[in-house]
Amino acid sequence: MELIDVVRKLIGPVNPIGETNADDIRFANLKVMGTLVDRLVFGIAEVASNKDRAEFSMKRAGEYANKLMDDLGID
């Protein structure tokens, strides 16, 4: 099982189906997923701040994280 499958199983479904009670639960799941994404992106942004470092390993990680942020369209 891949990590994304584990996370989806833990959070639960997020796509609404048009049934109020189920959609209330799915909306709560969506908010949990949004919080998770926000925290993950924040962590990537912290690493991206190393893109101009002189140390090779820090610069490499920073450049990679910065490219991820660019690919996601996040400044």
Describe the structure.
It is a single chain. By secondary structure, the chain is mainly α. It has one domain. It contains three helices and no strands. The chain has helices at residues 3-11, 20-48, 56-72. Helix 2 packs antiparallel against helix 3. The longest helix has 29 residues, at 20-48. The model has no long low-confidence stretch (mean pLDDT 97).
Topology diagram in text:
Layout: H1 3-11, H2 20-48, H3 56-72
Any key phrases for this structure?
mainly alpha, elongated, single chain, 75 residues, 3 helices
Largest sheet: none
Supply Rg.
17 Å
The structural class is mainly alpha
H/E element sequence: HHH
The count of helical stretches stands at 3
- Shape type: elongated
Q: Report, as a whole number of angstroms, the end-to-end distance.
A: 32 Å
Helix content: over 70%
What's the number of domains?
Answer: 1
What is the number of beta strands?
0
Q: Bin the strand percentage.
A: under 5%
User: Which spans have pLDDT < 50 for at least 5 consecutive residues?
Assistant: none
- Calculate the mean pLDDT score and round it: 97
